[in-house]
Amino acid sequence: MNAAFSDIASSGATVVRTWGFNDVTSPSGDYYQLWSNGQPTINTGSTGLENFDNVVAAAKANGLRLIVTLTNNWSDYGGMDVYVSQLTGTTNHDYFYTNANVIAAYKNYITAFVGRYVDEPTILGWELANEPRCTGSTGTSTGTCTTTTITNWVSEISAFIKSIDTNHLVGLGDEGFFNEPSNPSYPYQGSEGIDFNANLAISTIDFGTFHISWGETSDPTGWGTQWISDHQASQASANKPTIVEEFGVTSDQVSTYTAWYNEIVSSGLTGDLIWQAGSHLSSGDTPNDGYAEYPDGQVFPLIQQHAAALKARG
């Protein structure tokens, strides 16, 4: 952790987004919540939240702060579908947003995790979920989930976090979909259940989030530049900071990221978090899904230049 955080700090970055969840149905390695027959047990020991204490300590030692996401729309590290399966016996992903037992269990987890770090300045903010949608990895839902369903959930859960912790920022962690049903472009249509502007307007949401990973093939650079510009317009309208959290391409990286970085700096978007940081460790390289940026890679100097430009902008 120290080596990875040191590499990130050397890029000029000041904040790291990381996962604050790992739901399992059988104990193995590090995990934060164990589920058995519909009953969750939060792991507060050395393989559980004490491990996250180490994450916080390593970030602090390297002068970094953390944005911590509290569950996942996808099946990686458990996430929403574990709650739904364990408590409803179904694969209806959207029960995560509406089922009373599921909501109570998630609030129980939030109470333990967020409550542990209320007075920790290394935490910059909390996020309700990674990329929430009406459907998840199961691909199934009740068919009744709309943007209103998730916006209502965002309002309830963000207010709940604020009731526990008034010291830290709260964001959603979403992909930034707009809700314009007649728009010909899928990320603008609201079909996944996300209304970026409605969610950003919620009083207990402090900052906006969006991602760039839509497989736009005709002009990914230009499309992403417009996507950044449109979210900056929402930032200005809501008067709330907004960041692009996950962005990446696997070809023409330098030219594409240069264009996107220029748009971020010139437009006044609050900032960005590239997907994803890579390190060469003694045990081998950290995972690379094609988007990882290592300290000896061709993109790393560009990241350093961009970090300096953001700081110079103020």
Automatic annotation (TrEMBL):
InterPro entries found in the cross-reference section: GH, Glyco_hydro_5, Glyco_hydro_5_CS, MAN-like
The UniProt record lists the keyword Metal-binding: no
Origin superkingdom: Eukaryota
Main location group: secreted
Reaction(s) catalysed (UniProt annotation): Random hydrolysis of (1->4)-beta-D-mannosidic linkages in mannans, galactomannans and glucomannans
GO BP of this protein: mannan catabolic process
EC number: 3.2.1.78
An example Gene Ontology CC term for this record: extracellular region
Subcellular location: Secreted
All copies of domain Glycoside hydrolase family, residue ranges: 11-279
Keyword field: Glycosidase, Hydrolase, Secreted, Signal
Descriptive protein name: mannan endo-1,4-beta-mannosidase
